[in-house]
Each structure stands twice: as structure tokens, then as C-alpha cells.
Amino acid sequence: MVLAKATLKKLNIEADDNVLPLAVSQLGKPWHKLSEHINKNYDNFDAGLSRYFLTKFRINTALATIAFSLEENKKCHQLYACSAGKIAFEIERPLLLRLLHDFYGVADCPVSPNTIEITQTELRLQERLGDEVSKIFLTPEVIGLPITLQPLHNQQHSHWAWSLSFQLRGYPQGGITLRFDHQLIDHILSALRQESEQLPPSALTDGQLEQQLRRVPFTLQAQLASVETTLERLLALNIDDVLPIFLNESIPVTLGDEVLFHATVSEHQGQLVLSEFIDYYTR
Q1: Taking every annotated instance into account, which residue ranges of this chain make up the domain Flagellar motor switch protein FliN-like C-terminal (predicted)?
Q2: Are 160 and 75 in contact (CB under 8 A)?
Q3: Which of 5, 46, 200, 240 suits a disulfide with 63, CB 3.0-4.6 Å?
């Protein structure tokens, strides 16, 4: 379906806005609910990715942007099957190479995807990311039921109903895309329809409330040092001047304005980490 410029103006839509055309076969399905459904779980995806890359790769990153697209014909080889349908995992090579560099510490040099074949090291990391990142997004809350992903080796699939693509904070080049086949999308839409038809849920039990609170993402802040000086000295600072600071033996770790505990700054595998936690309230 193609919208003329005059029609776009009447609808207050700019020409460069992300307008998704729908084929006749796609009419009648609430496609907008898919993006709403994913965005509703955005914080969970953000926390899951941040925890995953920090734990497995020692990389401090998070979910930066996320976008959606409809109906696409593209051959994909890294496939997974579950009881609800099929998905495909794709990672753009610039991002794969940056993650490879940060994880293994290999040479960080630009590579043209069109001139050099993918190496076995890249392939192993790509398969590992596909197995583990897909599980972060394909949760029971998203799919509507618990699923188990099974890799489909030596197979390919070309026709996809819907896809989501995202980028990682600190990695502007390259992204990751998850593609869903029609069977899986129909299952998700059916689960959303049944959810909307159900009666309003009853009040949460204490256990359910605690479970949800445990999944709320938050940011801890650690103050490494503070400097006390005079305005006269501050105004007199010039380039190459040195302002001495002294690290404390233990530093406060805060959540907002509240001090939760004290910790010691240590070095682990070339990165600063917090260790030797001291309970602030019993100190």
C-alpha cells in the first residue's frame, strides 16, 4: 500500500517518518500490539542484556535502541525452533568484531564483510550469542508460554512475518536482529488477544509482588573520591595543572540519596570492580 504525499500531509505524517506498508494478507492483524508488547517489556530486556554482557563478557553495556519491521524475505541460516514456531538470529559483522575484540582481546582492525570470510572464532561467538541472547527476549511473558529453543543446523528459512532489531549502548556500528515466522507471530497475537479478553487480574500476592520488585532495574553509584578546594584555586587552574586526590580505603555505594553499603575498589582482569562489601547499617 503506497500513500501519496498529499495523503501523508492530511494525516500529519512526515515523509521521513517510519510508515510500515501493509499487504492485503496482513490486514486484520493487530500489528501495533506487537511493538506495544515488546516495549512493555523493555526494562526487562535492558536489565537482562546488561546483566548478561557484564557477567559473561565483562562488558558494561545495555539496550540502546529497538526497532520493528514487517514481512521480509531474507535467507537466514542461524535458526531456532520451538513449540510455537521458528526464529532467526542475525548480528551485523561490525558489532560481532567489536564484541570479539572486547571479549578475547584480539586485534581491533576494520574488516570488510564483502572481502573476508567469517572466521571460526567469529562463528563460535555468533552461535553463542544467538543461543543466549535469544533467550533474553523469548521469555514466557513475551511468547505466552515457556519454550525451549532448539538450533536448526544446516537449514535455512526465507519468509519472515515480523522482526525486532536493537543496538547496544557504546556500540553504534552494527546491531542484532531477531526474526519471527508467521506461526510464532500468530501464537503471540493469540496470547495477547486472550490476555485482553480475560477479567482484570486480582491483587498480587506478597510472593508475586516480591518477584516483580526483584526484577526492577536500578543503578548503583559509587563515589570514588571527593576533593575539597577553594574557589580561588579552582579559578586559577590551567591546562596541565595537577589537582591531587586521595582514594578512601572504602567508598560509599548509593542508590539515589541512600547509602546502601561500603565497598573496596579492586582490579580484576584489567577492570575496576567493587569487592569486600560492608553493611552500612551495621558498620
Answers
A1: 211-273
A2: no
A3: 46
In the sheet that holds 85-91, the strands lie side by side as 63-76, 157-168, 171-180, 85-91, 79-82, 150-152
- The number of beta carbons lying within 10 Å of the beta carbon of residue 122 is 19
Which DSSP symbol is given to 60? -
Shortest CA distance to 192 belongs to which of 77, 65, 32?
32
pLDDT digits (tens, 9 = 90+) for 162-191: 999 999 999 998 999 999 999 999 999 888
Residue 24, pLDDT > 50, answer no
Residue type, 188: I
Classify residue 214: in a domain, yes or no: no
Q: What is the pTM of this model?
A: 0.62
Query: For the residues 255-265, what does the mean pLDDT come to?
Result: 84
DSSP 25: G
Write out the residue range of the structural domain in which residue 265 sits: 221-279
The residue from 201, 229, 263 where one domain ends is: 201
Q: How confident is the model at residue 79 (pLDDT cuts 50, 70, 90)?
A: very high
Cα distance between residue 151 and residue 87, in whole Å? 10
Does 113 share its domain with 192? yes
The full DSSP string for 167-202 is: EETTEEEEEEEEEE-HHHHHHHHHHHHHHHHSPPPP
Degrees (nearest 5) of the Cα angle 209, 43, 144? 70
What stretches of 68-114 show up as alpha helix (H) in DSSP? 93-104
DSSP H stretches of helix in the chain: 5-10, 31-40, 42-57, 93-104, 120-137, 140-143, 182-197, 206-214, 231-235
Is residue 4 assigned to a domain?
A: no
Identify the CATH number of the domain in which residue 66 sits. Answer: 3.40.1550.10
Q: What is the mean pLDDT of residues 245-260?
A: 81
- 127-174 pLDDT, tens digit per residue, is 999 999 999 999 988 888 888 999 998 888 888 999 999 999 999 989
